[in-house]
Amino acid sequence: MPYGKTYQPVEQWIDEDGVLHGDEDARNQNPVIDEPSRYAGQLLTRSALRSLPDPEPLIEGVLDQGTTALLYGKWGSGKSFIALDWAASVASGRRWQGRDTQRRKVLYVAAEGAFGLKGRIDAWETGWHVQLEDGDLDILPVPVNLTKWADVHDLAGLIREQRYGMVVLDTLARCMVGADENSAKDCGIVVDHLNTLREATPDGRGVVLGVHHTGKDGKTLRGSSAFEGGADTVYQTCLDGGAIDVTREKRKDGPCEDRHRLHISPVEGTPSAVVSVHRGWTTATERTGFCPSCPPTSGQPERPEPTCGRSPKRPESHTEHSPAASMTCSNPANLSTKAPRHASSSDFGTRNECPPCPPVVQVHGKCPVHPTPLGVDMRSWTGRCPVPNTPQEIRR
């Protein structure tokens, strides 16, 4: 008898009449179904389908509730800055790049350690004049192995207990140690467990975001295509000179197109920086100081056509000047000393508004038009406000 093998008596296989019945365990693998299917109670009729809630945003036009998402990019492309910016905006209820957010408790799994997060969160609070309270944004400074059910079960229990509406895993690579990123099987398990964590959020309507790297080519998501195939939303970050392009490559429900051109802006008095709209002087509007969406006023020259090829027409839903438009209007009455809606990097192009125009000089550390982060010098090199006909009390 081979070592380690245990054999059953032949009597367990053949009855007294000599009929072969087989192993009891083998028979149990294919039992006779005499009960209703467990899926019967999960069927949706047409009426039930109509009553399902419509998709709702966590961050308007960026992340939808009840989804899993991936944010990937090459090292140094700002993906962790953006993930933290999303997380802090949701935790505080602050708009992200002009997009409304639904305020939720956030769990940030800093799988590579919490070193550096203190400075980044300090910079975010200082730059945007927002104080995150205890319980708004919690940090878990240890990795959670998404290939081990025990780790996933424990994290899901924490999410359920604390009612986190957003969970960030930074990075996925540190949360699947020992697994093969090129294996569709291993990556499929990770994606399935991301959905398990999402189901643990209140009513399953939270967002689970994984931060990942690019492959050797620096252009595509590292590892198996099962990552992208299983996620509901996929964004990529890419460096372009001094700017960071954030582009959506996949969205399960709704239009896919979404692009943000951002910049990492250092915040004075802190060791880190914040993510803000990139304001490179690259468009006709920015070079001339005229907004193509605003009609010319008496005595003003005709405005040049924008060279970007985008239509200057604004959406019909916009009945008043956007901040970018009011900042470059030749009519001083359109300038306000209050801080209106922050101009979104993606408002320009995908929404067919005018591109971002030069901001006015800060007064006492604050921009009178935009809630610009403290310590970020938004003046032109001449030290003068580039906006024509700006009221004298602002132009200084």
Order of helices and strands: HHEEEHEHEHEHEHEEEEHH
- The H-level CATH homologous superfamily of the largest domain, spelled out, is P-loop containing nucleotide triphosphate hydrolases
Beta percentage is: 15-25%
Structural class label:
alpha/beta
Q: What is the annotated CATH architecture of the largest domain?
A: 3-Layer(aba) Sandwich
Rg of Cα set: 27 Å
Terminal Cα span = 95 Å
Any low-confidence stretches, pLDDT <50, length ≥5?
281-396
Assign the CATH topology of the largest domain. Answer: Rossmann fold
Question: Which bin fits the share of residues in helices?
Answer: 10-25%
- What is the number of E strands? 11
At the first level of CATH, what is the class of the largest domain?
A: Alpha Beta
Report mean pLDDT, rounded to a whole number.
73
Strands of the widest sheet, in order across it, are 5-4-6-7-3-8-9-10-11
Number of domains: 2
Q: Describe the sheet with the most strands.
A: 9 strands, mixed
Specify the overall morphology: globular
Number of helices: 9
